[in-house]
Amino acid sequence: MGNILIKTEVPGPKSREIMKKKEAFVASPLESLAPFFIARGEGAVVEDVDGNRFLDFTGGWGCLVVGYSPKPIVEAVKKQVENYIHTDFTSIPYEPWPELAKMIAERAPGNFEKAVAFFNSGAEAVENAVKVARGYTKRRAVVVFDGAFHGRTLLTMTMTHRPMPYKYIFGSAPDVYRIPRPNVHRNKYTPKDFERLLLDTVAPDDVAAVVIEPIQGEGGFNVPQPGLLEEIRRVTEKYGILFVADEVQSGYGRTGKFFAVENWGVVPDLISLGKSIAAGFPLSAVVGNRKFFDALPKGSIGSTFGGNPVACVAGIEVIKMIEREKLLDRAVRLGKIIRERFEEF
Hints:
InterPro entries: Aminotrans_3, Aminotrans_3_PPA_site, Class-III_PLP-dep_AT, PyrdxlP-dep_Trfase, PyrdxlP-dep_Trfase_major, PyrdxlP-dep_Trfase_small
Order of helices and strands: HEEEHHHEHEHEHEHEEEHHH
Largest sheet: 7 strands, mixed
Keywords: Aminotransferase, Pyridoxal phosphate, Transferase
Family: Belongs to the class-III pyridoxal-phosphate-dependent aminotransferase family.
Distance between the termini: 32 Å
Cofactor: pyridoxal 5'-phosphate
Strand order of the largest sheet: 4-10-9-8-7-5-6
Number of strands: 10
Protein name: Aspartate aminotransferase family protein
């Protein structure tokens, strides 16, 4: 496609014309960051309808870890669409679902038998991880942290920290408890304070899950203090609580590991995934110890479009592409370069 190129004023005449339709018919809370409309994308470069090219730092809000429309994914998706586009896996099953589930389970941390459930959005994955935790423990309380973002459903919106714009006056779900995320640079707490913070907030025998983003995104790219994830693992095991890692944003190679928790050698009970899992197709997942899923009755989780065959085929190709092109190593290499340049300022 080429490099950055500005051919017209921004927004250009074609973008301005489309903007009129947006302003007339699109719900006003759905505001767009860019002042132009995309025509195509390649790698990290987007071209708008007026022929201007930009370097995209948003990646569809973290969904394009393999870039815009890579050829192997496009070809695999075309082939799948020609065969069939949709059937619900719980009505007529199809091979791409268990194949992708196998690939994710084989890469997830933990020396135990794993299972995978697919959904559509990251919020659905987090919410269903909580459902699995509640079903297994027969408890209801969920503990989350200051600065968290877990989604926009009623439950995950309640689990999310920032009131505006996400919560507004929409109400909240019950049985969600928030505690400070220990970080000596942002508050007075250290990882060793986690157990006390938990016990001061809710009876541990009532807690089904502690849910944490290993690296917070909305919370300011907040990397865990040394020992925090390890302490959460110790405390959750002590009280029979499930440790849920929300890796919707931090997973799929961004940290140089397939799962961010691998950087700290911690094995959660359940991991929620989304965003980059299918190169922009709506797909999310929960992966974890099979015994937790087996505790739920048949039909207690599911989704009409969750694990759509086209999305699953894209997901299979994403993992192949990450490994074939050694994108984990590339993330480490680029991270080192960027960090060194930042430290020069």
